[in-house]
Specification:
Layout: H1 12-20, H2 26-58, H3 63-112, H4 115-119, H5 123-165, H6 167-175, H7 178-214, H8 216-221, H9 225-277, H10 283-325, E1 346-356, E2 359-369, E3 374-379, H11 385-392, E4 400-405, E5 408-409, H12 415-421, E6 422-425, E7 434-435, H13 436-441, H14 448-457, H15 461-465, E8 474-475, H16 484-498, E9 502-506, H17 514-527, E10 532-536, E11 548-553, E12 556-561, H18 563-569, H19 572-582
Parallel strand pairs: 3-10, 3-11, 6-9, 9-10
Antiparallel strand pairs: 1-2, 1-4, 4-5, 7-8, 11-12
Helix pairs in contact: 2-3, 2-5, 2-10, 3-5, 5-6, 5-10, 7-9, 7-10, 9-10, 14-16
Length: about 600
C-alpha cells in the first residue's frame, strides 16, 4: 500500500489530548511532578551551598559554617536521589496504566468495527497501533516526559539562580546562549528529518520481511532465493544509510554543544577572574557559576533529541487516537434476546447486498429455512453463498430487505446474542497459539470430559490421543503443525462446543478425506437434529441429505427442492451432479 510521507508537523491538539490521558491518574501525575520539582530544586541548591561553604566557611576560616554547607549539600543529594526515584516510580506506574487502558480500548474498538473496515486495514497497521505506537506513548510518560520536564526545570532554574547570585555576571553568561539556541533549533529540524527517514526505512524492511516470510514457500518453489536476497539487501542498505545519517547528525551536535560549553566556561573564567580580583565577585560565587553553567549545558545536549522523540510520540498518539475516533461498528441497538432452547426459523426477505457500489452480489434474494431443518446452498463461485453466512451473523449488514430469525429482524437482536446463536465452520480454519483444548473451548469453561466427547463425535479424538500431550499439546499460531484435515475436525469440535442454535457449514468438509467425511457425516446427522443448519459445499456428497437445496445463480435462487426433486427438473443441479459423476471427488488431507 502506498503511503504518504509528508513531513510531520507538530500537532499541538494531539499533544494536549495526550496529556489529557493523565486525567484518570491526576494524583499520581501531581505526585510525580512535585517529586521532579524537588529533584530539580535539590540539584540547583547544591551550587548555592557550595558558594556559601567557600565564601563563609573556607575563606572565612569558619569550620562550623563549612560543616553546615557540607551537611546541606549531603541533604540535597539524598533528597534529589529519593525524589528522583519517586518520580520515576510514579511515572512508570502511570505509563503502564495508560498503556494497558489504550491497548484494551484499541482492541475493543477493533472488535466492534464492521468487516468492511477491518478488511481494508493491513493487519500490520493494526498490530503496530496496539504495540509500537502505544509503547511510544508509554515511553513518553515513562522517560521522555521526565527528561523534558526536569531538563526544562534545571535549565530555567539555573538561569534564575545565576541572576540570584550575581546579576552582572549572569547577564554575561546569558549573552553566550543565542548560538546554542540556534544550534538546538537547527539540529531539531535535521534530527526530525533523519529520524523520519529511519522510521520509513524500518517500516519498509518490516513489510518486506513479513510478506516474504509468509510467502516463503512460493520463494522456494520458484527458486527466487537469490533475487529475494538481493532485494532485501537493497532495502537493508537503505536502512543502514538512514541510520548512519541519523548517527552523523547526533555525532555532530553533541561535540558542538560541548564546544559552546567550553567557550562559555572560558569566557566566564576570564571575566569572572577579573571581577574576583577587583573584589566584585567572590570565589565561591565564581565556583557556583561554573557549576550552574555545567548543569545548564548537560540537559541542553539532550534537549533537541528529546524534542525529536516527542515528535515521534505525538505522531504515535495521532495514529492511536485516529483509530479510537474511527467508528465504523455494526449498529448494536437491538434489545431482543434469542431463545436458543428451541429450533429457530430463518428467512431471507428480498435481500439486496453489494460489497462495491456498482457490483450487486445478492439481488432481492428470498428463501426460508424451517426451524430444525437443514438447507444446502450450491452454486458457482461468486454466486453469493458465503455472503449469506456473513449477513446472517451480521458481519455485514444488508443494503435492502431484511433477514429474520424466529420472525424478527436480526437487527432487533443484541449483537452478542445473535452471534452466540449463529455460528459456523469455515473452510479456512484459524487456530490460536495455545493448547488443543483451549482452541476447542474458546474460554467457555467446559469440562475436559465434554471436550473429549465432542472430539470423539467428530472423529478427532483418536489422533489427538496419539499426540505426546494429548489435549494439552500446544499449537503454534494457525496450527500449522497439524494437517489441513485435522484443523478442520478441530473446527467442528469447536463449533459444537459452543452449541449454537443455528449452525453454518461453509465448505466445512472441503479438506477432509472421503473416509473421514463418511464418519463425520454420520456424527453430524445426530448433532444437527433439532438444530437449524445451512450447508454450503461444492462436494455434492455433503449436501444430499439436506431437507432442501438452494441453487444460487447471480445472487438469486434459481432452483430449490430436495435432491430427488432437483434431479427430476434436469436443471443446473442435475447438470452439476452429472459432472460430479464424470469427475469423481478425490480424497484430500
Amino acid at each position: 500500500m502506498k503511503q504518504n510521507h509528508k513531513p510531520e508537523a507538530f500537532n499541538g491538539a494531539v499533544f494536549v489530548r495526550l496529556l489529557g490521558t493523565l486525567k484518570t491518574s491526576i494524583p499520581t501525575a501531581l505526585a510525580a511532578s512535585a517529586a521532579l520539582l524537588i529533584s530539580a530544586g535539590s540539584e540547583l541548591g547544591i551550587p548555592v551551598f557550595l558558594q556559601y561553604g567557600i565564601d563563609h566557611g573556607v575563606l572565612a576560616n569558619n569550620l562550623s559554617r563549612l560543616w553546615t554547607a557540607g551537611g546541606a549539600v549531603l541533604v540535597l543529594l539524598v533528597t534529589g536521589m529519593v525524589s528522583s526515584f519517586f518520580s520515576v516510580y510514579c511515572l512508570s506506574q502511570l505509563s503502564q496504566d495508560i498503556m494497558v487502558r489504550l491497548r484494551t480500548s484499541l482492541l475493543s474498538r477493533f472488535h466492534r468495527q464492521r468487516a468492511a473496515y477491518l478488511y481494508g486495514q493491513p493487519v500490520g497497521t493494526l498490530v503496530s497501533a496496539v504495540t509500537s505506537d502505544v509503547a511510544t506513548l508509554s515511553d513518553f510518560f515513562n522517560t521522555l516526559f521526565t527528561s523534558l520536564l526536569k531538563d526544562f526545570l534545571v535549565m530555567s532554574g539555573a538561569i534564575v539562580t545565576l541572576f540570584f547570585l550575581n546579576a552582572s555576571l549572569a547577564f554575561v553568561v546569558v549573552l553566550s546562549l543565542p548560538p546554542v539556541i540556534i544550534l538546538v533549533a537547527v539540529f531539531r529540524k535535521l534530527s526530525r528529518k533523519a529520524s523520519r527517514e529511519v522510521r520509513r526505512r524500518v517500516a519498509k524492511v518490516n513489510a518486506f520481511l513479513s510478506e516474504h516470510l509468509q510467502g516463503i514457500q512460493v520463494v522456494q518453489l520458484f527458486a527466487r532465493e537469490e533475487s529475494t536476497k538481493k532485494a532485501f539487501g537493497e532495502e537493508n542498505s537503505g536502512l543502514l544509510a538512514a541510520n548512519l545519517r541519523e548517527l552523523m547528525v547526533n555525532a555532530i551536535f553533541r561535540p558542538l554543544v560541548d564546544v559552546f560549553w567550553a567557550i562559555t566556561l572560558a569566557f566566564l573564567l576570564w571575566y569572572g577572574t577579573g571581577l574576583s580580583l577587583a573584589d566584585s565577585v567572590t570565589l565561591g560565587t565564581l565556583v557556583a557559576f561554573i557549576n550552574l553553567v555545567t548543569r545548564f549545558y548537560q540537559p541542553a545536549g539532550s534537549l533537541a533529541e528529546n524534542f525529536t522523540q516527542l515528535q515521534s510520540a505525538v505522531a504515535g498518539a495521532e495514529r492511536v487516537f485516529g483509530f479510537l475516533e474511527r467508528d465504523e461498528a455494526i449498529p448494536n441497538n437491538g434489545t431482543n434476546t434469542i431463545d436458543t432452547n428451541r429450533p429457530l426459523a430463518v428467512r431471507f426477505d428480498r435481500v439486496e447486498f453489494r460489497y462495491l457500489p456498482d457490483e450487486p452480489v445478492l439481488r432481492g434474494l428470498s428463501f426460508d429455512v424451517d426451524a430444525g431443518s437443514t438447507v444446502a446452498i450450491v452454486g458457482y463461485t461468486g454466486a453469493g453463498k458465503t455472503t449469506i453466512t456473513s449477513l446472517l451473523s451480521r458481519m455485514w449488514d444488508v443494503d435492502e430487505g431484511q433477514i429474520l430469525i424466529d420472525g424478527k429482524d436480526i437487527r432487533s437482536y443484541a449483537l452478542f446474542d445473535l452471534r452466540g446463536a449463529v455460528q459456523g465452520v469455515l473452510q479456512d480454519v484459524f487456530l490460536f497459539a495455545g493448547t488443543i483444548a483451549e482452541n476447542i473451548d474458546l474460554g467457555k469453561g467446559l469440562p475436559r470430559e465434554r471436550l473429549v466427547e465432542l472430539c470423539r463425535l467428530v472423529q478427532a479424538d483418536p489422533w489427538i490421543q496419539k499426540l505426546p500431550l494429548g489435549y494439552d499439546t500446544v499449537l503454534n499460531e494457525g496450527g500449522t503443525t497439524l494437517s489441513t484435515g485435522q484443523r478442520q475436525l478441530l473446527s467442528f469440535a469447536r463449533v459444537l462446543a459452543q452449541d449454537p442454535a443455528i449452525l453454518v457449514l461453509d465448505e466445512a468438509t472441503a479438506h477432509v478425506d472421503t473416509e473421514t467425511e463418511g464418519a463425520l457425516q454420520a456424527a453430524l446427522h445426530l448433532v444437527l437434529q433439532g438444530r437449524t443448519s445451512l450447508v454450503i459445499a461444492h462436494r455434492l456428497s455433503t449436501i444430499r441429505r439436506a431437507d432442501k437445496i438452494l441453487v444460487l445463480d447471480k445472487g438469486v435462487v434459481a432452483e430449490q427442492g430436495n435432491h430427488e426433486e432437483l434431479m427430476k427438473t434436469n436443471g443446473f443441479y442435475a447438470r452439476l451432479n452429472r459432472l460430479h459423476e464424470v469427475m469423481p471427488e478425490e480424497p484430500t488431507s
